[in-house]
From TrEMBL:
Leader peptide range in chain numbering: none
UniProt-recorded name of the protein: Splicing factor subunit
Originating organism: Microthlaspi erraticum
Superkingdom of origin: Eukaryota
Pfam family, one: SF3b10
Family membership: Belongs to the SF3B5 family.
Gene Ontology biological process terms in this record: mRNA splicing, via spliceosome
Annotated transmembrane regions: none
Amino acid sequence: MQASDRFNINSQLEHLQAKYVGTGHADLSRFEWAVNIQRDSYASYIGHYPMLSYFAIAENESIGRERYNFMQKMLLPCGLPPEREVD
């Protein structure tokens, strides 16, 4: 692998990170990354009707109730954020 290949890969990664929020960046905390993953998952469940109906059948709820529950879970998917250290 040459230095130009590494530069090209890094520039492509930076471009993806700037374009798509879910790919993260260097300053992204573990909590923020987990929140992005959970929200993406819930949005996918809501957006794909067969998956939503599968969850509704599995939990014995209506499809509208499952959609509502997923949207409520998107607010705080991983609980409250951890306390940050004050410098």
